[in-house]
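Re-run with default settings, no changes from the original entry. Doing this only to confirm the output is reproducible before filing.
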Amino acid sequence: MKILTIRHGSLGDLIQALGPFQAIRRHHPDAHMIALTGPPYVELLQASGWFQEVWADDRPPVWNLSRWLATVGRLRDARFERVYDLQTSTRTSAYFFLIGMPRWSGVAPFCSHPHENPNRVEMHTVDRQAEQLRMAGIPQVPAPDLDWLDADVSPFALPERFAILVPGGSRHRPGKRWPYYAALAQELAGRGIAAAIMGTAAEADLASTIAAGVPSAIDLTGRTTVLELAGIARRALLAIGNDTGPMHATAAVGCPSLVVFSNESDPARCAPRGAKVATIRRPALADLPVAEVLQEASILAGLRKT
């Protein structure tokens, strides 16, 4: 049996789909599993060992007919017997019709295993995907085994005591960014804890602002793969960050993770899941003081002054 699983989206989306990916793999132990995902996450899903193949879908615009036909043609030629569409977008639902209407779990009209919950968009992503798979015949979606989500991080020469800070996030949603990470890094330094600043290369300006006033801060923006990010999180005392993808990775591997939310996103629908995760929310993040964040983080991670 050849089975396709689809999940595009951001890093957070991929991390939250790891449980469903593993559940599908276990439900079909002898199947030839193929994942369809965004180009940045091919290496991540290959490392999981759950798929024989991982295909990149760069989601060409509808007006680029040649690229659309190439994507659809590849999917049609594979002759999948079953598809689990965890993306459930208009694009992926269109794939259902264009590749010959195989047995399909998702929201495409007339599909064989629809997620029939009119309130599905109000559910937390993890719960929504678990319910979708139950309706498709997979009764349980336990927390995934993530021993593989790790890497050798010795080249980064990290100190013994450090905390991850994630000051970035969507540039088009500045209201999701807490503005006081530099002051937080100074407070952590006073406790003997270095700040390891994580994010994309596009967020290097945030890291440089923090590091300018805190000599012990370590700028790792744009320098890590997802596997290295997870490896660093496994060795960190804690992680503090905005509602953004890296915080899902830190939470997934068990790093005590405090995630800061404004009214621009709802933790009930998208907060990271993990054994040691807490959230703190203010309508406007400028009204959230450093002392409160540090107190919540200290409780979560059991920090003591040194």
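Residues 65-78 form the longest helix (14 residues). The chain has two domains: 2-135, 154-301.
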